[in-house]
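Hey,

Quick one before I head out. I ran the complex with iron/sulfur cluster overnight. Inputs first:
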Amino acid sequence: MKLGFGFMRIPRLEEGSVNMELLNELVDCFMQNGGTYFDTAYSYGKDGDSETSLRDAVVKRYPRSAYTVATKVNAGKAAGEEQAKEQFYTSLSRLETGWIDYYLLHGVQIANVKRYEDWHLFEFLKEKKEEGLIRNIGFSFHSSPEMLDDLLRRHPETDFVQLQINYADWNDPNINSKKCYETAEKYGVKIMVMEPVKGGGLADPGPRVTKILKDADSEASCASWALRFAASLDRVHTVLSGMNTMEQMKDNLSVMKDFRPLSEAEYRVIEKAADALREENSIACTGCRYCTPGCPMNISIPEVFASMNEYLRYHDRLKFRRNYGIAVRKGSDASQCIQCGQCENACPQHLSIIQYLRDTRNTLDELFPEEK
Ligand code: SF4
Ligand code: SF4
């Protein structure tokens, strides 16, 4: 089965700790239905609790042969080469797996690739593979197909890449899913897919797109179309999905267990849906939150964008004002942005965050001029 269980957004209780009871149930359901692949990262969760939860829910409850684990080193969370390498040992001790099946350089893009290379992390991963502590070397990637080509040519030790692939981004000139996929295919590496449902956005793509998908198949969920699009690609080894409710888990399993690739007619439906999404001009934020920790003004960027996107889809101005108000309650208003640019450097989607914040605030002001 091509479905992988992503541990970036695991279920949490209200006070913030991991909901282990639900996580165990999700893991059991996933494994009983043939799932084996789990994806986490050194930097996911709070104080490493994504990796330790994976240990408690999977490693301590299943034999080592029943699953494979992927985790990642994050150069952005290290002060130097030694600290970055130390992350590998920390992950290994948090996970208690003995070895890492798939080990990745996390979120490689123009802004950080020099660090990964200057700190000799490709060489380090090669060494660990020779020692038997890593089984497959790879990297997750958020940049141009040309850069991907260059990296794969210079690092033939790469066994796999993790790419953002979904039908909304397939031909998007910012993300270039299609060209990145073709580049990886050219080098014969395995492809793991991240963001197949675009941070959940394709599970609820708004009334127009939902109608297109429901007219084609009234039984299928919108998320199932997105998963099938990614999993229908031949070179794709695993499609990651962050499942934090049993409903999501069951829906994903129903699609992926006895997998049926998209037919020609279904591809045409997807193209229509992608066109409708493009016309919507929504902000392509996946809610990953990589932009927020360093914001000196503490602006809740993804929540501000979610409020704007919902307005673009449903045109409900009162709801927009309410959601925007909730978004900025814990931090600053979008108008407080000092344009320092740290968020844009951190954003894997290469979004013009400063401009979008301005647009969101201006839209609200235009809708409620009396409250300016
Ligand atoms: S540019 Fe604005 S939103 Fe981005 S980090 Fe700086 S202050 Fe925050
Ligand atoms: S703006 Fe970019 S970095 Fe921030 S949550 Fe959205 S996609 Fe992630």
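The chain has a mean pLDDT of 95.

Talk tomorrow,
K.
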